[in-house]
Design brief:
Elements: H1 50-63, H2 68-92, H3 116-126, E1 144-152, E2 160-171, H4 185-198, H5 213-226, E3 230-234, H6 237-248, E4 254-258, H7 263-271, E5 275-279, H8 284-297, E6 309-314, H9 326-335, E7 339-343, H10 358-362, E8 371-375, E9 385-389, H11 391-400, H12 402-405, H13 412-425, H14 433-454, E10 467-473, H15 477-487, E11 490-491, E12 493-495, E13 505-510, H16 517-534, H17 549-559, E14 565-571, E15 574-580, E16 585-588, E17 593-601, E18 604-611, E19 617-621, E20 645-647, E21 650-653, E22 657-660, E23 672-676, H18 697-700
Parallel strand pairs: 2-11, 4-5, 4-6, 6-7, 7-8
Antiparallel strand pairs: 1-2, 3-9, 8-9, 10-13, 12-13, 14-15, 14-23, 15-16, 16-17, 17-18, 18-19, 19-20, 20-23, 21-22
Helix pairs in contact: 2-3, 4-13, 5-13, 6-7, 13-14, 14-16, 15-16
């Protein structure tokens, strides 16, 4: 990934402490940070030199490089598997060891139908772990699913058989971003009505008798939602890219594609007669270099100018969870007069304040993007895809793309489902359900990402992305992680070669707005157990996240505050006890743990609770006589204080980004409250009446 200019590196302000020797197993594996004093370092001048830019790019590249010891062990594991697989193949040629399953199915005199290596990879590597893939379910792909249990049907592990039983599991696998895949009573009736009126299928292409009134309505809605003049709906998401790209660019044209673009884009680009060039993933600097060289050199042999240049990127990359650096890429395309094609299959509905995708997320005008592509299979709970562009481009696609001219159109019920979901997202149904789903998805994604990072997993992707990849690397860890999670009622998707590079296997968590906070916390507990067992905590620093007792005593003395001890805690919909220790750790009654520290900020005393498996909470000390409590105040009492702490639902990620979610709870409602346990009220606290119509009443009323 190529960072934007002015972007800093690692967070500053890392507290350099002499940590005590590790005793037993530490729950938290992250260093302690210096609270709100952390800031991303910025350059003194807006103008950066070429050297500093290269250093910034190199530093970012090193962050995503596979550690050499991990790469070495991964390559060794694959080599070992191939050696043993080859030995098994040699033994199978011995007559008395040969079995029916290994008898060749090739016809005598014919050439080999299957590629040798692909056949070997399937027999000796994939078949052994095929139970981790293609898992059938017997329910809607909602937050919880029914997984149909299977087992190998023979000793050679060439096929699977169903056991006739189901398992209820938490679903972190489906692209059900906004939760529309589950049956909504209001939408279900309308969808069924459309199916009864128009039939199950149109059995025809759009260019013939496959266009109905619901198709035209959906095209109008998606065009208005994206701010484009027109749109066309195609029956399959993959076919949208693979059939539209060859229609847009032909011989004499140039397609410049991101190196990690989806296979549908690769298929479409190869199907066209255009030349193809690739630029470094998500890097505007590499794109500019590729464009400049391509324009200067022209077409091969003839050196004629290119008829057209089309830059193809994705809004949200499904294997990396990274959001496109669209603003910089659009600026480069404008500079060199190149068209831009954005695939929003995963970003539409999942990014942006109103779900309008990566354009809204990055602040790019719809008029700056020539062609917007997307699918209805993720956020909309349906099937099919769309192209949104100018009227001329849409009309040309309708006349030229095989996906519109020859393929069967979307089923009317699926069209109606996508239209109703889009209507709810736009708020045209008169409710705020769509907006709440979008906010809930963002909150869930950031909470789960923070929990994985805190437990020491190597997590890829960007903030707000509902796709959260976690690196596995070693081939043996692919089935181990998947099977251990399923045993604990957690359904996940593991990905390996050829979908990823050979040594970059990963597990890909897909978060949904249908998940509750309890679902995600439970999932993080399972992942923490499995990650320890499978040993994928590659970011573990090897040090417990505790502070020295002297540091804690100094904080208590500085702020005149007694934090250590037992507290009564209430957070959202749970109530429990909280034990704060003098070593910088705290533990909730149910076993959840984390680290804590106290700091002064803008005249207020803040207690930071950094949970091990969820986001950090910041709680503010209640007000006292003479104003807000402050560490340097002359009115500081001599005795340590134990009073109520309260805070709203702020997610703090490494102390750098504060993400508020005011729509989750009313602004005048405390989401987290700590009260001293078994101690009388402090004589320093002055009782106050609850003020009326005051947004911060929960802070001003200690007895609330």
């Amino acid at each position: 990934m190529c960072p934007a200019q002015g972007q800093g590196g690692d967070p500053a302000g890392l507290r350099k402490l002499n940590f005590p020797a590790k005793v037993g197993k530490a729950i938290m594996k992250l260093p302690v940070y210096e609270g709100s004093s952390q800031k991303v370092p910025t350059t003194a001048s807006k103008k950066k030199s070429r050297k500093s830019k290269d250093v910034c790019i190199m530093a970012q590249e090193e962050e995503h490089t596979v550690p050499w010891i991990t790469a070495l062990t991964t390559y060794f594991s694959y080599a070992l598997l191939m050696v043993f697989g080859t030995m098994r193949d040699l033994l199978m040629h011995v007559s008395f060891l040969r079995t029916t399953a290994h008898t060749s199915t090739e016809k005598p005199g014919y050439g080999t139908l299957l590629n040798d290596f692909q056949d070997f990879y399937t027999r000796r590597l994939y078949n052994r772990i095929q139970d981790c893939f293609n898992r059938p379910i017997s329910s809607a792909p909602g937050a919880w699913i029914q997984v149909m249990e299977r087992d190998f049907s023979n000793a050679e592990q060439t096929s699977m058989k169903l056991l006739g039983t189901d398992m209820t599991a938490l679903n972190l696998s489906s692209y059900n971003y906004l939760g529309f895949a589950e049956s909504d009573l209001e939408m279900r009736d309308d969808v069924c009505a459309a199916m009864r009126r128009l039939g199950v299928s149109n059995t025809s292409a759009r260019s013939e008798l496959g266009t109905t009134d619901v198709h035209l309505e959906l095209e109008q809605r998606i065009a208005a939602f994206l701010g484009k003049p027109a749109a066309v709906v195609i029956g399959m998401g993959f076919a949208t890219n693979s059939t539209v790209l060859p229609a847009l660019v032909g011989r004499g044209g140039l397609i410049i594609s991101d190196e990690l673009n989806h296979s549908s884009i690769v298929t479409g680009a190869r199907a066209s007669a255009a030349r193809i060039k690739v630029f470094k993933h998500n890097c505007a600097v590499s794109l500019e270099s590729t464009l400049r060289r391509a324009i200067a050199e022209g077409q091969p042999r003839t050196r004629l100018p290119w008829k057209k240049i089309l830059v193809v990127v994705e809004g949200l990359y499904s294997m990396e969870g990274e959001i496109c650096n669209l603003k910089d890429i659009v600026a480069v395309c404008k500079k060199y007069k190149a068209y831009i094609y954005v695939d929003e299959a995963h970003s539409i509905g999942a990014l942006g304040n109103s779900g309008r995708g990566v354009l809204e997320h990055c602040g790019v005008k719809p008029s700056d993007v020539d062609v917007c592509m997307g699918t209805f299979t993720k956020s909309f709970g349906s099937v099919g895809g769309y192209i949104a562009a100018s009227k001329e481009v849409v009309e040309f696609v309708k006349r030229s793309s095989p996906g519109h001219m020859s393929a069967c159109s979307m089923a009317p019920a699926c069209v109606r489902q996508a239209s109703l979901a889009l209507r709810m997202m736009a708020g045209e149904d008169g409710s705020s359900k769509g907006r709440k789903k979008i906010d809930q998805l963002k909150r869930n994604a950031n909470l789960f990402r923070a929990g994985l990072e805190r437990m020491g997993c190597e997590v890829l992707g960007d903030q707000d992305s509902p796709i959260i990849p976690c690196m596995l690397y070693n081939p043996a860890k692919i089935p181990a992680f998947s099977r251990e999670c399923l045993l604990r009622k957690l359904a996940v998707v593991v990905v390996g070669f050829p979908a990823t590079p050979l040594i970059k296997s990963r597990v890909r968590f897909c978060i949904s707005a249908a998940h509750t906070e309890e679902d995600l916390i439970s999932a993080l507990r399972v992942v923490d157990q499995v990650a320890d067992k499978v040993m994928i905590k590659y970011k573990w620093t090897g040090r417990p996240n505790v502070a020295l007792s002297a540091t804690i005593k100094q904080q208590s003395k500085t702020f005149g505050l007694n934090v250590v001890g037992d507290w009564q805690a209430s957070h959202f919909n749970w109530s429990d006890s909280l034990r704060i220790d003098g070593d910088g750790r705290f533990a909730r009654g149910n076993g959840e743990q984390g680290s804590w520290e106290v700091e002064e900020r803008e005249g207020k005393i803040i207690l930071r609770l950094e949970w091990d498996r969820c986001a950090t909470e910041e709680l503010q000390l209640e007000n006292f006589e003479g104003g807000a409590a402050a560490g340097a105040s002359d009115q500081m009492p001599e005795l340590p204080r134990r009073h109520v702490f309260r805070g709203h639902g702020n997610l703090i990620r490494y102390g750098l980004d504060k993400i508020s979610f005011p729509d989750i709870v009313p602004i005048n409602t405390s989401t987290f409250t700590l009260r001293p346990k078994g101690t009388p009220p402090s004589p320093l606290k002055i009782p106050q009446k609850t003020p009326t119509k005051t947004p911060n009443s929960s802070y001003l009323n200690p007895d609330e």
